[in-house]
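Dear support,

I submitted the protein below through the web form. The confirmation email said the job was done, but the results page showed an empty box. After a refresh the structure appeared. I'm attaching both so you can tell me whether what I see now is the final result or a partial one.
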Amino acid sequence: MSSVKDTELCEQNLDPFSDSIPLQSLLSHHSPISTPSPSKPPVDSSETTRIISLICLAVSTFIGLLCIASGIYIAVANRDIYNVVLPPTWPGGPPTYNVLPGMVALFPDASHRVVLPELMRLAFTIVYTFCDESIGFIHSVTQRSTLATHSTQSSQGFTIQRRRRALQFNTNLRFFTAPRDENIGTFHPNGTLCNAVMALLHILAYSSLSLSKLTFTATICSENLGPNRCQDGGWESFCVSAIPILALGVSIVLQASIALAGIHCTRILTWNSSPLLSLAAILREGQVTRVPGRCMCGVLDIKGSTTDRHPKKPSPIQPSAWKSHRGIRRIIRALWVSVLICGAWGGIIVAAWHKDTQSVSNLDTPGLESWAFIPTNNSNAFVFGPSFTGSPLSPSSWIICYVALIVAQGALAFALHCSEMIVNVLRDEHIWRLAVSKNGTKPANPILGVFNFWPTNVLRLAKFFLHWVFGFCLTLQGTIAYLGDPEDPHDDTFDTQSSLQVIMRSVQTWYLMFFLALFCMFVTILALHHPRGPQPAAYGHIQTLANLIDDWAPDTTIWWGHKEGEGTYDEGGETGSEEDRDRDRKVVHHAGTSDSPLPPVDLGYTYA
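What the results page shows now:
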């Protein structure tokens, strides 16, 4: 293959190579042979997928509305939670004014029950992951159809050369891919603006999950206790605040609304995410045309003119996704950079704690005495935020916390979102390469098909697990402190004050770095994998698949292999003789697809 140019290749890679089909007798070498006209691609309604997707969207919307209703109830109820968050021996008794509005307290004196509250937050994360996957699937379906029916301008230097289809690959980064705004309008649900809003809502939702479990510590702080001022330990309780729950619900409902608007504004070509059915739909629309004579050209052969015949011999090994896709290389490099940043972040936390600046909490902060996975009172922590106040917690406290979380968690959310594109690219290539297996390739229900490709299952688990672990690294800490004299308490004073601060833990950050490194290693190994066999790699590239598939089956089950040659052969010579085989190697053969099993291609033949 000639030199490989980095083009904007953005979709699939492979995986397994199943049992090849037993060699069948090739065509007779004594008759004229021509390439058949390609059959029409089948019509795929994917009605079942559409119904399941809409049901999941409705369930996600209901969950979002339930979160909004719960948040409003918690905020309006203004319940007295001091009987939970304050110990019975609190000096002077509970205050008569509420310094902790909009909260519901759970698990009193829960310093010894650290697992149960974290399991509750894990359950919240799993539920939102379901909502995110359901909404994201519909958003990607509408985005794919929008890209398929619109074109964009490609240019070289200062000269605009031609207009090309916006959808080049079956899989795209849904937050970062959109047609030009002048083609679809600024406020189109799949436009640049709405994609940016979806990305922000996605980050906001995961940030709200990290804040869904709020730890409040009640402690005595007095000058009579010495230089540290505060008692060791304290009465810990876990609370659920109205603001994160309300923000989570609003985020889910708005994302679902944008996805629903995409269904309304887009003529959906297919609800199936299979690259084969996407190609079939685009072919029926006339948005792409098959180029004959390129039956052995993979995605790396997109160079120069893509409309000329390109005879070539098969290669026993195909290029990896890393080599084929510049975007994948960028994503993997960014993932490894995020691992290094995560480790450095943990080191900065330790350095800041040892420096003991004014930004560090005025409470005692323990050293590196605990390497527990779930943080305890001995976990190293760097705390910053507003100081104690006798007034109710102000909105500025929540704003500071949300800004810190959005900045930090946004990087993780985008990293996992980009990793999803890599895995989907590999899944697309896996679907295409099943065409040389015994049973051929047939697009399955995309929702059920997710569970048939194991890297996708690993990605789903990694997404909610890494976000859950992130909640250990950066979260909120609420403190109720008695600042008066515990020996001479006064009723109804402002001696009981509260503070809401951001807490960062170094050990848990290094645990996150470890798990993120394992995930990056997993994705890197997949991207470096070279598919075996002569079947050209497409990685979901629409034009490449259109050139490789020349025959469609009514039920969309297709096989790929050797079909026939082009031109004529000289009569004479014994069939199967060495002279015949030499002539076979000089003629240009054809490989393609069929609705029945085909013999494997010959590595010594030239195909076009």
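Response: this is the final, complete result; the empty box was a page-load delay. DSSP finds 15 helices and eleven strands in the chain.
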